[in-house]
Amino acid sequence: MKLDRAQFTIFDVETTGLYPYSGDRICEIAAARISPDSNRLKKFQSLVNPLRPMSYGAFSVNGITDDMVKDKPTIDQVLPHFLKFIKGSVLVAYNAGFDLGFVESALGKNRDLLADYLVVDALTLARKLFRNAGRYNLGMLSESLGIKSDEEHRAMADVVMTVKVFKKELKLLSAEGVKNVEDIIYARSRANAPVKRVKDYKLKLIEDAIREERKLNITYKSAWSNVVTNRVVTPVQIQKGYDKSYLVAYCHMKNEERNFRVDCITEINLIE
User: Fold this and answer.
1) Residue 66 and which of 24, 59, 138, 257 are 20 to 30 A apart at CA?
2) In 3-state terms, what secondary structure has residue 126?
3) CA distance 94 to 51
């Protein structure tokens, strides 16, 4: 897909907490679509009734209260409109694993609707292109790039900031001769590729963590008991069986090396 012809949808979610498979839910979703033939952003935004109370931690970050969402549509009412909005585009998010984890959780059995989308992690790309930034959370990076935002930490405000960061990334990529979306993986270094199919995203994060000797936060749903746990693990290797892939990792909760079925890892994030 040609970089200068691709349509990109930058999206962000605000949530009731950090772990979708422990019951946390989306309370706001926003997106902006960039078209090569227009400088105007097409926007999508909705508060969402998560059908559970907001945690204090979430409120302290996003300022969303229970009263703000109590009369809003639920996520199953919002997602069809979101899916229509993103259709035919390349997905972009800042720390994409977090946002994708919540959207896939909300889709449930319909998560395969996202499987073949290309997704660009603007955070991974920022680490490759802005090597002297120092800190890479969205606010600090934006400030270092001269991008200002007086808005509160809400989904659309973060989307707009990510759009501005991503446009700077695209400009640098074009200057380096990158012509196709798929070729972004070769920018500066093939390692730690910022572009993957959604369905390959978990394996990509595991491979990154092994190579960089970093820990992972995972949410794991046991295939035997259906018990969901949140764990910090240090990945060792990926073992591919006949029909399943396994993550061999040191589990800091159990203080021992264990095997985790990759398809049972429901959420995964690199620890900064």
Assistant:
1) 138
2) helix
3) 26
Query: Are the beta carbons of 50 and 23 closer than 8 angstroms?
Result: no
**Residue pair 209/215 in contact by the 8 Å Cβ criterion:** yes
In the set 72, 127, 153, 258, the catalytic residue is: 153
226 CB-near residues (< 8 Å, 6+ apart):
none
- Show the tokens assigned to 175: 């200057």
Taking only Cα atoms into account, the Rg of the chain, rounded to an integer number of angstroms, comes to: 18
Task: Name the pTM for this structure.
Answer: 0.72
Active site residue 153: yes
C-alpha to C-alpha distance for 162 and 180, rounded to whole angstroms:
20
Q: Tell me: the pLDDT tens digits for 141-196?
A: 998 898 877 666 799 999 999 999 999 999 998 888 888 888 875 554 444 556 66
Taking the CB of residue 110, how many other CB atoms lie within 10 A of it? 12
